[in-house]
Amino acid sequence: MRQRIAVVGSGPAGLTFARVMHRHDHAVTVFERDPAPDARPPGGTLDLHEELGQRALDKAGLLAEFRALSRPEGQAMRILAPDGTVLRDWRPRRDEQANPEIDRGQLRDLLLGPLDVRWGRGVVRVLPGQPDGVRVEFADGRAEHFDLVVGADGAWSKVRPAVSAATPHYSGVTLVETSLDEVDTRHPALARLVGEGSLAVYGVNRAVVAQRNSGGHVKVYAQFRAPLDWAADLDPGDAAAMRARLLALFEGWADPVLELLRQGAEFARRPLHVLPVAHTWTHVPGVTLLGDAAHLMPPLGAGANLAMLEGAELAECLAAGPADPDAAVRAFEGRAGARAARWAALTTAGLERLVSEDPAEAVALFDEVHAS
């Protein structure tokens, strides 16, 4: 008799797990609180690493489809000083496939495929150790029971409390996101500034990063060290007030860089939270965690990649039909936890260097990555 398996969350981790299980003819049920796949903007672009995210897609049988959708040219990176001086202008080889970019929405749709996703089913609590298995309680008042519940529901996971008392803490860095549409036709000068990939401008304890997505869309991120309540006094819908606050914060920077902020129509404030670097938990039968639910780390390109590989590896462990599925999950947690701790330490140190008192640290980090 096959296990009853539920996945909470339809992000990259949960969908990769479900898709690899599906490839091995094992059905799982995915629960997602959003009412539909397009209920909210899917976010920006992701660079999928050959040994992490791309490896996971290969396990799901989706690598060829990914390569057809991805943008290898999106790996390009330009780094400027606040006065506009070009410090680095790196462009990938034509055949470079180490970290091609893909829009989050495109990746989501690729993974969704034939999966059974129950939209609009927000989970409020998970109770292991019940007579009929793990009890999952939903916001609509209903409850269901499963043999295994996989928590892939992100930073503020509702599954995590079933195995761990840890909660995310503020990293000290806040990010404000905006975007530009039809940049090639409406903002050609900014399109040239950003190039085919990403643009980063580093100053003292602050930075502006712009990333090209598909379809002439550019995401712009202002990131800086600030108290958790920075700009909390502003109405979230008051774009003019947020724009003025940001322009004051980056006063004196080169005008083309500031123009990236001036042209933003809407702004979202996102204080960056993280879990402890070596977050682990005592194994609880019937419940496990993937991705941000397990090891929320600074968003420096590793989190989604790790989450996808974890999802694929856990699925392969279970699809192999181990004699003791719970022991297989426990062993997976040990391996995944050790690897995630290494990446969490790297990304935590990276954030310290990217948003620091010495902007040269950010450029040096870029050089180290590309020299390796």
TrEMBL record:
GO terms for cellular component: cytoplasm. FAD binds at D47, R104, D292. One of its GO terms (molecular function) is FAD binding. It is found in: Cytoplasm. The keyword Lipoprotein does not apply. Its cofactor is FAD. It catalyses: a tetracycline + NADPH + O2 + H(+) = an 11a-hydroxytetracycline + NADP(+) + H2O. Keywords: Cytoplasm, FAD, Flavoprotein, Monooxygenase, NADP, Nucleotide-binding, Oxidoreductase. InterPro entries: FAD-bd, FAD/NAD-bd_sf, TetX_monooxygenase. Residues 5-320 form the FAD-binding domain. NADPH binds at R40. Its main location: cytoplasm. It is an enzyme of class 1 (oxidoreductase). One of its GO terms (biological process) is response to antibiotic. Its EC number is 1.14.13.-. Belongs to the aromatic-ring hydroxylase family. TetX subfamily. Monomer. An FAD-requiring monooxygenase active on some tetracycline antibiotic derivatives, which leads to their inactivation. Hydroxylates carbon 11a of tetracycline and some analogs. This is Flavin-dependent monooxygenase.
